Amino acid sequence: MFPCLSKMAELVEAKAIEDDEEFEEDESISERLIGLTEMFPEPIRKSCSYAISFLTSATKTSVSAMRSILWIASSSAVILVLPVLFESERAKQHEEEIQQQRQILLGPNAAVSGSGGSSNLLPGMGMVPNPRS
Fold this sequence. Notes:
The protein is mainly alpha-helical. It contains 4 helices and no strands.
């Protein structure tokens, strides 16, 4: 309608935007959170604070306990289980070497029949005395 009025309205609007920008204060996130907590009553704030500190403490304690349990389990496995595994592997390898020597000396059928069907690792344990004798 009137170009003069529209220009004046734009200037007033621009001035209002500048005024709003001047009054805005730069707040940090912590200041905003503190302002938000003030709208809740004191008992609710304290109970939330206690709950958060309890959860933090419980989490730290459980992580520490899990680290200790994992350390005990892994060191026990290394000390108790690995030597048994190594020894059984060595015995198995020794048995294979004996079968290979029998096969070389007596032929392919001797290695299979010469083993006596004994799968025990200790010598003489697989032999049961004949009850007829």
